[in-house]
Amino acid sequence: xxxxxxxxxxxxxxxxxxxxxxxxxxxxxxxxxxxxxxxxxxxxxxxxxxxxxxxxxxxxxxxxxxxxxxxxxxxxxxxxxxxxxxxxxxxxxxxxxxxxxxxxxxxxxxxxxxxxxxxxxxxxxxxxxxxxxxxxxxxxxxxxxxxxxxxxxxxxxxxxxxxxxxxxxxxxxxxxxxxxxxxxxxxxxxxxxxxxxxxxxxxxxxxxxxxxxxxxxxxxxxxxxxxxxxxxxxxxxxxxxxxxxxxxxxxxxxxxxxxxxxxxxxxxxxxxxxxxxxxxxxxxxxxxxxxx
Length: 292
Known about the structure:
By secondary structure, this protein is of the alpha+beta class. The protein has three domains: about 10-75 and about 130-150, 2-Layer Sandwich (Ribosomal Protein S5, domain 2), CATH 3.30.230; about 80-115, no CATH class; about 155-290, no CATH class. The protein is about 60% helix and about 15% strand. The protein is built from nine helices and six strands. It has helices spanning about 50-60, 85-100, 110-115, 130-175, 180-195, 205-215, 220-240, 245-265, 270-290; strands at about 10-20, 20-30, 35-40, 65-75, 80, 120. Helix 4 (about 130-175) runs antiparallel to helix 9, helix 7 (about 220-240) packs antiparallel against helix 8 and helix 8 (about 245-265) runs antiparallel to helix 9 (about 270-290). It is elongated.
């Protein structure tokens, strides 16, 4: 089990030779909510498709995956034959479509026809146990390179997350220096409102109402919860496997606290800091999509 951040972006490649064949295994992945795989393997390996899928799922877990096995025959006497029936059928269909659509027929028929499926037939040899053992090891080698790529990408993502979390933490502390000024401004605005109304008011009652109003604007709980969420995010980065979904949930909670700070701030400088915090968080959310 790898307790470190892994990227869903991955790439691995391995090659080997067996008899007259060069076997190349290539694995690519991008981010996806599920395990979504596109397999391209020679016909001789089709019976092993379930085994290949199972092996890939155990290691890759999640992502949009392209898996390819290519066979390059060093023996140029490999039997290939032209599928005349397929070519003739394609030829007639294309001519009919050209007439119906009133478009020109291809200038180079062979270049068009030979790109179409099943116009070239290759002899399909049965896969023996010795070759499958070699292929399995090559897949394992490609997966090893693939995981190493994910680790390297994950290290880069982790640096981004640590930087952004630290920035949000520092910005939340910057808010504190505006707290006394904010409360005083609230008090002054309320007093000025009463003066403009030119009415007598009970100073004791005014103080009570002011305390009640200030309590509603108090952000100490939001700051405490925000700090806890930031710490939890940092802990999850290094202490758990396959953290992508969990980090996403924590980022949502961080966003809620930042939004509440913004709605309660009632102060231009504080609101500007909140906007900066939101910007840092958005960058975190964008990169979380790439985390396994």
